[in-house]
Amino acid sequence: MSTIDDVDRWREELESKRDEKDEFFADHPQSPIPPEERDSFDGLDYFDPDPDYRVTATATVHDDPEVVLMDTTAGREMRYLRVATLEFDLEREDEDLEDGAFELNAYQMESPNEEPLFVPFRDKTTGQQSYEGGRYMELSADRDLADGDEIVVDFNLAYTPFCAYSDTFDCPLPPEENWLEVAIPAGERFE
Fold this sequence. Notes:
Elements: H1 4-27, E1 45-46, E2 54-71, E3 77-90, E4 100-109, E5 117-121, E6 135-139, E7 150-154, E8 188-189
Antiparallel strand pairs: 1-8, 2-3, 2-7, 3-4, 5-6
């Protein structure tokens, strides 16, 4: 992000989205928080907003997407199509954290509907500071992606799947190809 104003605006939008989500989890009938636990729910836990984890990725689009079977938390398999590979660099100010080039695969369900790109992932926070089943991101491009296109990947929007809060949900687990060998202390925490 280029200016302090841009960073401030991004941070305000992120905090607003987090407040909306907390409200949904506390009050909405479709909240994954069991009804008997909603009165004591006081909001989700988040890593501090960090613009270092809002990166621009370069897409490699798979014209003939491969089927990827993802195991789920209920022991089933779900079919997804690997539609793109997103390559990005991490350059962080914290000297204790590893920088470098990384990639994540983006998927869509086998359906004719236009859907956001589904990017499930694990990282070095998984099972310690974030949910043991991994986290998700959904990315929307403003048009159909082509090879070499850039798309923003904001790990500050990474979220914990509903199955972390209730066994009534069955969630896909990130495939091994989306296990990052680096810590991503951004987005939702879950301990």
